[in-house]
From TrEMBL:
Family: Belongs to the PanB family.
NCBIfam families per record: panB, PRK00311.1
The protein's Enzyme Commission number: 2.1.2.11
Name of the protein: 3-methyl-2-oxobutanoate hydroxymethyltransferase
Keywords: Cytoplasm, Magnesium, Metal-binding, Methyltransferase, Pantothenate biosynthesis, Transferase
GO molecular function, one term: 3-methyl-2-oxobutanoate hydroxymethyltransferase activity
GO BP term (any one): methylation
Compartment(s): Cytoplasm
HAMAP family assigned to the protein according to its UniProt record, in alphabetical order: PanB
Functional note: Catalyzes the reversible reaction in which hydroxymethyl group from 5,10-methylenetetrahydrofolate is transferred onto alpha-ketoisovalerate to form ketopantoate.
């Protein structure tokens, strides 16, 4: 199976919705790959994999290691790697050095970065030098220290307008797609109608050109989830039951049993 390419993702605007999920590890990538158009190695791995309070402390090394694992575990989906906080904001040159490193070390197709108008020159710089960029507007979790939390964005008309302007700036700068996170629905609809690239919603609107969720959230593997998460599975319960049965088997010596043991022939 040939991998979906960035140009083909771009062409999906207004057609069949694009399916994206986060993936951080090889086995999860293998399981999700046949069903997804894109796998996002999100910096949400900070919370999900590393137990960090937010994404600010996520490093290039983490993104490179998990990005490479996800590429190794997938054959069909395009893999996109988040640029961690501090790796791209200082200048277009800084962004190019780190984005190119992520693509080289992982084999991913593209990077994603958070931000709007201010980062449009960076998106243009990267795109014109061979690095496809997915933008991320609305609720941008790396800005938690400025925003003071993860509340829905765009409640005032001024903020709504600035989010739409950010999205247009990112699209005009050459972003091949964009995540719209945590905004009032009408903002996501307006952006989807106004920008040239596909929009991928999370807490946004079913009218976006695609959707994304953090896989562990929708699988029931992460306890505290926002309103916009729908649990499509209860894997946490499955893990708990299996571990409980294993512990009982060890304690009553029913495990290992004859099938799991070696004897002389
Ligand atoms: O890091 C992440 O998982 C993300 C998605 C929620 C879009 O950026
Ligand atoms: Na992210």
């Amino acid at each position: 199976m040939k991998r979906l390419t960035v140009p083909r993702i771009r062409q999906q605007k207004g057609k069949e919705p694009l399916v994206m999920l986060t993936a951080y590890t090889v086995r999860m990538a293998q399981l999700m790959d046949p069903h997804c158009d894109m796998l996002l190695v999100g910096d949400s791995l900070g919370q999900v994999i590393y137990g960090l309070p937010h994404t600010v402390a996520v490093t290039m090394e983490m993104m490179a290691a998990h990005g490479a694992a996800v590429v190794r575990g997938s054959y069909h989906a395009a893999v996109i790697v988040d640029m961690p906080f501090g790796s791209y904001e200082a200048s277009p040159e800084q962004a190019f050095v780190n984005a190119s490193r992520l693509l080289k070390e992982t084999g991913a197709a593209a990077v994603k970065l958070e931000g709007g108008k201010v980062l449009a020159p960076t998106v243009e710089f990267l795109t014109s030098r061979g690095i496809p960029v997915m933008a991320h507007v609305g609720l941008t979790p790396q800005a938690v220290n400025i925003l003071g939390g993860y509340g829905v964005r765009g409640k005032s008309p001024e903020e709504a307008k600035s989010i739409v302007d950010d999205a247009i700036a990112m699209s005009d700068a050459g972003a091949f797609a964009m995540v719209i996170e945590g905004v009032l629905e009408h903002i996501a609809i307006e952006i989807t109608q106004k920008v040239a690239c596909p929009t991928i919603g999370i807490g946004a609107s079913a009218q976006c050109d695609g959707q994304v969720l953090v896989a562990e959230d929708m699988l029931g593997l992460f306890d505290r989830v926002p309103k916009f998460v729908k649990k499509f599975g209860e894997m946490g319960v499955g893990v708990e039951e299996a571990v409980r049965a294993y512990a009982a088997g060890v304690r009553d010596r029913s495990f290992p049993g004859p099938d799991q043991l070696y004897q002389p022939v």
